[in-house]
């Protein structure tokens, strides 16, 4: 009878060990799945922040580009006005020179 009790105790211990192993495997799987989900959420957050930052950088670059173009256009307008003024002065000088040659 003692041998039978010993065998029963061993079987029960094996069953408990098997159950503990199954529970541990299930817990391990749950932990791994949770880690994957957390990693995916973290990746999405980082990706979204990167998209937002990239959009901000593009907007800033666009604004700076517009500012540079506006400044260059203003400078071109000033140069054009100066050239027109110089051309008008040269035209008047040429007219005076022609008139002085004729008389």
Would you mind describing this structure in some detail?
With 103 residues, the chain is mostly helical. It is 98% helix and 0% strand. The model has no long low-confidence stretch (mean pLDDT 93). The protein starts with a helix and ends with a helix. The protein is rod-shaped and about 150 Å long. The chain has one helix at residues 2-102. The longest helix has 101 residues, at 2-102.
How are the SSEs ordered, and which strands pair?
Layout: H1 2-102
Helix fraction, binned, reads over 70%
**End-to-end distance:** 151 Å
What is the overall silhouette? rod-shaped
Instruction: Tell me the total number of β-strands.
Output: 0
State the low-pLDDT regions, or none: none
| Radius of gyration based on Cα positions | 44 Å
The largest sheet, given as strand count, sense and whether it forms a barrel, is: none
Number of helices: 1
Mean pLDDT: 93
Q: Helices and strands, in N-to-C order?
A: H
Return the structural class. Answer: mainly alpha
Residues in β-strands, percent = under 5%
List keywords for this structure.
103 residues; mainly alpha
Short summary:
By secondary structure, this protein is an all-alpha fold. The chain has 1 helix and no strands. The protein is rod-shaped, with a radius of gyration of 44 Å.
């Amino acid at each position: 009878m003692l041998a039978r009790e010993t065998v029963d105790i061993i079987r029960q211990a094996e069953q408990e060990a098997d159950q503990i192993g199954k529970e541990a495997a299930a817990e391990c799987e749950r932990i791994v799945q949770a880690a994957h989900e957390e990693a995916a959420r973290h990746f999405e957050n980082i990706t979204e922040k990167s998209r937002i930052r990239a959009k901000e950088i593009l907007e800033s670059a666009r604004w700076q580009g517009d500012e540079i173009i506006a400044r260059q256009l203003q400078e071109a307008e000033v140069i054009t006005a100066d050239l027109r003024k110089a051309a008008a002065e040269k035209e008047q000088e040429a007219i005076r020179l022609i008139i002085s040659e004729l008389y």
